[in-house]
């Protein structure tokens, strides 16, 4: 529950949904982005072997990518995040 007493819905994303969120990339590209740190790692919240990404983690990641205090070299490294910068402002 959140502070207002209402039940809050946690958003979970499957790999295909994460790929769609970042410009329609394939699942293998999502795996590579996680492996080299361009995306946060998945979690396994439902006691199975299926990876899910927490919507709050992805939102925080997107905010970090668009932060004016982020060094330019890190922005260049975040290929997946370049799509986010335009999507986050719309």
Radius of gyration, CA atoms, in whole angstroms = 14 Å
Q: Order of helices and strands, N to C?
A: EHHEHHH
Helix/strand-derived category reads mainly alpha
**CATH class membership:** Mainly Alpha
> What best-fitting shape do the alpha-carbon axes yield?
globular
Output the CATH topology: Multidrug-efflux Transporter Regulator, Chain: A, Domain 2
How many individual domains?
A: 1
Taking all residues together, what is the mean pLDDT? 79
Largest sheet: 2 strands, antiparallel
Number of strands: 2
> How widely separated are the two ends?
29 Å
Approximate strand percentage: under 5%
What CATH architecture label applies? Orthogonal Bundle
Kindly state the percentage of residues in helix: 40-55%
> How many alpha or pi helices?
5
- Taking pLDDT < 50 over at least 5 consecutive residues as the criterion, the unreliable ranges are 73-78, 83-90
Order the strands across the largest sheet as they lie in space. Answer: 1-2
Task: Provide a brief overview of the structure.
The protein has 90 residues and is mainly alpha-helical.
